[in-house]
Design goal:
Layout (H helix, E strand, L loop, with lengths): L1 H12 L4 H19 L3 H5 L11 H36 L5 H5 L2 H24 L10 H28 L2 H33 L14 E3 L4 E6 L1 H11 L1 E5 L6 E2 L4 E7 L8 H10 L1 E4 L8 H16 L6 H18 L6 E5 L5 E6 L3 H15 L4 H15 L5 H21 L3 H17 L10
Parallel strand pairs: 3-8
Antiparallel strand pairs: 1-5, 2-4, 2-6, 3-5, 7-8
Helix pairs in contact: 2-6, 4-6, 4-7, 6-7, 8-11, 8-12, 11-12, 11-13, 12-13, 12-14, 13-15, 14-15, 14-16, 15-16
InterPro entries: DUF2254_membrane
Pfam families: DUF2254 (PF10011)
Protein name: DUF2254 domain-containing protein
Length: 450
């Protein structure tokens, strides 16, 4: 249930209509209150320079003028937003657009324009039914002026913010921050199962050897957006079964793919396994798009895409690629807490109920560096920062397996340089950086034999 809520919240949080809709409702509500509040006494108590309005018609004319101007400002803001999104999609990658759409400053700026427009429209509609004998809506007029002035300054700040947000370094830092938040939130729910799996050594069956009668199959095609492990644990405990899942968040599945196995105790052999299977598939969220809040590798690939586009011949911006490499290196120490590719969930009695495949540090490191290394195979100025990051990470590795994974990536960088870099001096510089990685945790290593 919690994962479903996260998916809905991510959908709403990365839309440009949800926050403006709330502002619109708020603007209309404030207009209803402002029109009906008696404001003569309050206006009389204000200093003489404060504006006062003698008739309802004067307020209507002012409101109409402010409304037309605000509509023009909002159109300009939307046009600027579309230009920024187009530039971002072309230079930084289409998957980074969701970060611009989910930016709270952008959503609140557009919301302030929409809310002010709805305030003025609602005020005009209500004033249209008022006569000359009705009191002049002084508070509504003053509120409209204040909202217009605020919207004017919001427009200036909004354009300034959009200008800064399209800078590659800003995008890299923002996406990197989202990556670290995704890793931290995933660790909150997965750290204990990972430790349990490492201690108990649970294993997963091969999909080809699973008995079809006990197989769990994908309900539909798409990406695994999230798995409600708590819901699965509740189902497994009540039914007294063991669940093995061979998939993880971010993996693409096809309808009827075998994604796991149900093991039933001999005492429950007569139970309806189809009923259990239906309960289990309900806890596995499958959709057409990957979700960054639940899928660490997707958050990684957003940064990788920025680097790959920067390295493309059409853009050729190695400094952006280097900035991505260093930002990935900052996030990798957190990923080292995923020291096992499996997670094990137990019930309150300590009985094993779920064994599931998870993304571990090795898979995350592959997702972070493989494609960048392949795209930068002839660029020593990009391979060198990769080796530097590996040198920093190997000293923080939590297990010997993680150290071996880092050394393997260092050797791949060395072989890539030896094969593709023609200049001997550049090749030797990369080899020296690779050797520093190999020697940091290992006294002797015959790098030439690698």
């Amino acid at each position: 249930m919690f994962h479903r809520f996260i998916r809905i919240w991510e959908f709403l949080g990365h839309s440009l209509w949800f926050i403006p809709l709330l502002y619109a409702i708020g603007g209309a509500t404030v207009a209803l209150l402002a029109i009906r509040l008696p404001g003569e006494e309050m206006i009389a108590s204000l200093p003489d320079f404060w504006p006062r309005f003698g008739t309802v018609q004067t307020v209507q004319d002012l409101t109409s003028t402010l409304l037309a101007t605000l509509v023009t400002m909002t159109t300009f803001a939307l046009s600027v937003t579309m230009v920024v999104l187009t530039l971002a999609a072309g230079s930084l990658g289409p998957r980074t657009i969701r970060n611009f759409m989910g930016d709270p400053k952008t959503q609140n700026a557009l919301g302030s324009f929409v809310g002010s427009i709805l305030f003025l429209i609602t005020a005009l509609v209500i004033m249209g039914g008022q006569g000359k004998e009705d009191q002049v809506p002084q508070i509504a007029a003053i509120t409209g002026i204040i909202l217009f002035v605020v919207s004017l300054f919001v427009l200036i700040l909004f354009v300034h913010h959009l200008g800064r947000s399209i800078v590659a370094d800003q995008v890299i830092q923002k996406v990197g921050g989202n990556l670290e938040e995704t890793i931290a939130s995933s660790l909150e729910t997965l750290s204990k199962p990972i430790d349990h799996a490492a201690e108990a050594g649970c294993t997963l069956p091969d999909a080809g050897t699973i008995n079809p009668d006990r197989a769990i199959k994908a309900a539909k095609s798409g990406y695994v957006q999230g798995i409600d492990y708590e819901g699965l644990l509740e189902v497994a405990t009540k039914a007294d079964i063991h669940i093995a899942l061979t998939i993880h968040a971010g993996q693409h599945v096809i309808a009827e793919d075998i994604i796991g196995e149900i093991s039933i105790n001999a005492a429950n052999a007569t139970d309806d396994i189809d009923e259990y299977r239906n309960f289990i598939t309900e806890q596995i969220l499958i959709g057409n798009q990957r979700t960054a809040m639940l899928d660490i590798e997707f958050a990684l690939r957003q940064l990788v895409e920025v680097a790959l586009r920067a390295l493309s011949p059409g853009i050729n911006d190695p400094f952006t690629a280097i900035a991505v490499i260093y930002r990935l290196g900052r996030a990798m120490p957190q990923a080292m807490n995923f020291h096992s590719p499996l997670g094990l969930w137990r019930d309150e009695q300590g009985q094993e109920r779920i064994c599931a495949h998870l993304s571990d540090f090795g898979e995350m490191l592959d997702a972070a560096f493989n494609q960048i290394r392949q795209s930068a195979s002839t660029k020593p100025y990009v391979l060198l920062p990769m080796a530097e990051v590996l040198e920093s990470l190997i000293g923080q590795a939590k297990t010997a397996k993680q150290q071996d994974t880092l050394r393997d990536h260092a050797r791949l960088i060395g072989r890539t340089a030896a094969r593709n870099i023609a200049e001997a001096a550049d090749r030797r510089a990369v080899e020296r950086a690779v050797n520093r990685v190999l020697r940091q945790q290992q006294a002797k290593d015959d790098y030439s034999a690698a």
